[in-house]
Write a structure and sequence with these properties.
Radius of gyration of chain B: 13 Å
CATH superfamily of chain B: Glutaredoxin
Largest sheet of chain A: 3 strands, mixed
Structural class of chain B: alpha+beta
Strand order of the largest sheet of chain A: 1-2-3
Radius of gyration of chain A: 11 Å
Number of strands of chain A: 3
Number of domains of chain A: 1
Largest sheet of chain B: 4 strands, mixed
Shape of chain A: globular
Strand content of chain B: 15-25%
CATH superfamily of chain A: BolA-like
CATH topology of chain A: GMP Synthetase, Chain A, domain 3
Helix content of chain B: 40-55%
Oligomer: heterodimer
Distance between the termini of chain A: 33 Å
Order of helices and strands of chain B: HEHEHEEHH
CATH class of chain B: Alpha Beta
CATH class of chain A: Alpha Beta
CATH architecture of chain B: 3-Layer(aba) Sandwich
Strand order of the largest sheet of chain B: 2-1-3-4
Chain lengths: 76, 110
């Protein structure tokens, strides 16, 4: 089952409370998204660690129900 | 992940300077993200090896735990995990990826 953009955003913000999250539904099908996540907590972390923090917030859904989420992250 | 799988993956990432875990082969990628990763490496003109995880269930499951990364493709340079296709694209666009490959002595593609 695809996930709604608001559900993705809610999970990310639950895991990373100060995160600013922009989600784009790339194909208009509720299944292919891009997300840009900006958080102070990313400061000093490598890109890999920043992405891992987002994936942790998504709680194992990435690569499962969420198969196509293009992700970019940045420190505030 | 079994210890055997972990040991195999550790050996794979040490054996190649530039290694892409992907779905399909560079000639016939089976997923848009893998295709994008291949295109980046080919555009940078570096020699790389690839592992088709669709042909190897042990590696397909094991690599996710090994890298603590939930998706394929995954790029390794000199045994270090660099990232998935989004990070590759970001580093490609900023010039960091070609810099990293040059610093690590990646071989230009023939």
């Amino acid at each position: 089952m695809p996930m709604a953009a608001d559900d993705i955003r809610a999970l990310i913000v639950a895991g990373i409370p100060d995160a600013r999250v922009e989600i784009t539904d790339l194909a208009g099908d509720g299944d292919h998204y891009s997300a840009r996540v900006v958080s102070k907590s990313f400061s000093g972390l490598s890109r890999v660690k920043q992405h891992q923090a987002v994936y942790a917030a998504l709680g194992g859904r990435m690569g499962g129900v969420l198969h196509a989420l293009q992700l970019t992250t940045a420190a505030e | 992940m079994t210890d055997a799988a972990q040991a195999r993956i550790a050996e794979l990432v040490q054996r190649s300077d530039v290694l892409l875990f992907m779905k399909g082969s560079p000639l016939f990628p089976q997923c848009g993200f893998s295709s994008r990763a291949v295109a980046i490496l080919q555009h940078l003109g570096v020699e790389f090896d690839s592992v088709d995880v669709l042909q190897d269930q042990e590696v397909r499951q094991g690599i996710k735990a090994f890298s603590d990364w939930p998706t394929i493709p995954q790029l390794y340079v000199k045994g270090e995990f660099v990232g998935g296709s989004d990070i590759m694209m970001e580093m490609y666009e900023s010039g960091e990826l070609s810099q990293l490959l040059a610093e690590q002595g990646a071989t230009p593609a023939a």
